[in-house]
Amino acid sequence: MTARAFNACAAAATLATLAAVGCSSAPPSVDRAEPRILRIAYDREIDVLNPFTSQNLVDISFSMIEGLITTNERNEYIPVLAAKIPSEENGLVARQSDGSVTMTWSLQRNVRWHDGVAFTSADVCFTWRFVTGANSMTYNREQYLGIKKCETPDAHTVVFTWDGAYAYYAGLFEAILPRHVFMKADGRTEMTVDEIVNYEPYNRGRRTIGTGPFKFAEWKTGEYIRVVRNDDYWRGRDVPAMDEIVWAFIPDNNTRLLALKSGRYDWGRIQPTQVSALRALPGSDVHLIDANSVMHFDLAIRTDLGKALFGDVQVRRAIFHAIDREGMAKKLMEGAVKVAEGPINPNSPYNNPNVATFPYDLAEARRLLDDAGWTLGPDGVRRKEGRRFSFTMINRAGATDRILLAQVIQARLKEVGIEVGFETLESAAWTQRWRSGQWEAMVSAWFLPADPGITGLYACKGANNMTGFCEPALDEVLERSDRALSFEARKPLLDESQAKLSEQARMLPLYQNVMPEVVSRRIVGYRGSGTNFGSFWNLWSWELVSR
Description:
By secondary structure, the chain is α+β, with helices and mostly antiparallel strands. About 25% of the residues lie in helices and about 20% in strands. The chain is built from 17 helices and 22 strands. The chain starts with a helix and ends with a strand.
């Protein structure tokens, strides 16, 4: 088989496509003379390759683009382009007399961008200027806003001056942008934030460069992205040990399952309900990765309908009592997940296990709705002041697990006199609607970092608080938690924040997400991680062995 034909087979997204390009259903033998190609059955086509503006997980971008830090499989921050992570203990974090805090980052030396230009501290400060720009589209922009100054004493040192202590500082700058790529034609002026956000050559691959172990090669819309080995990688000429990675887009869960069964893919993520189907897959193992992510049911009050239906905390509590989360976990998810009671991973030391809970109780749900003035109408739907208790949930096409959960929620709420309809949107349209706040309910999930900051999700002006809920007392506690550098100081504040969230019934945690990853035994070096940086955090060290 030629290398070109092998690439086509590797990128094929369905079994039908496999046949169309002349590939048999049996996996090919691996000839060491052929390229060492890692084939990934990826769950969606991404939007852009800029990791700061993408609204998807950025596994593909991170194979090319590195940051100061990443997170390993033990939920620990580890340095990448930084030589070490500053702390008060190592003397690189210093509190100043005016209340500000300086943090000094030493950078790796002899690092080059994929086009041969040297990586320097100027790239770091450029990235900071972009991220903090008003229209940068960065999902966690507000976490950078405490940095008031970025200085470059030399090419390999960056000094940030913060307006005060900020607990999450070690989890920032997960990517660094190449300043020279975003210069205007005069070679002296940086592009504006809006120009960077919309710079198609970087977003779509023509000028997507990083310092990472792989370089951009090809993006075939609707099919795959292909990256190739960086022969000048700063960690050494002997890494990475793979020649190419093909990220095939297979958004449909069942199609992806069949593709993995075919044996043509080395890595793929499946649903918890599909684990049993692949437990005995020859040559592969299924790893259950405990994710820093909770599946939850969100209500929103940014529309007039949302305010009218969900503005009363007693009504929200009634809705939550009507949902059988244990049934979801044990039956729908076949026991692969556990019910959650808050947004932070139960395995995290920051989790508060002593918060208000909402056990399944239809009688209590009906009582609370009666007390709130919502009485049953002749059609079985509750009414109050002439308004029927009816709303629409938005679902994302292809997200079969979330759609199934939405269907269960719909059925349970019908039992207490609440009518729920669905609107299913393609991924981009779903994201736009979610960001606009023009929705009433959805099933969703967040991936939290190793050091869980939740201010951006639940503060009144949090960048990712799209629900419209606002509680100044909660904001005050969240802000204090962000300023606490030690675990001892921060833990009680995050405990209090989680307790307040439960009391307010802002969202209903459904279960702790588990990510089943199907991994070929050909892969050496895989160490699955459930953080927001994902299981490809050490991709540079992976190897492929012969079958």
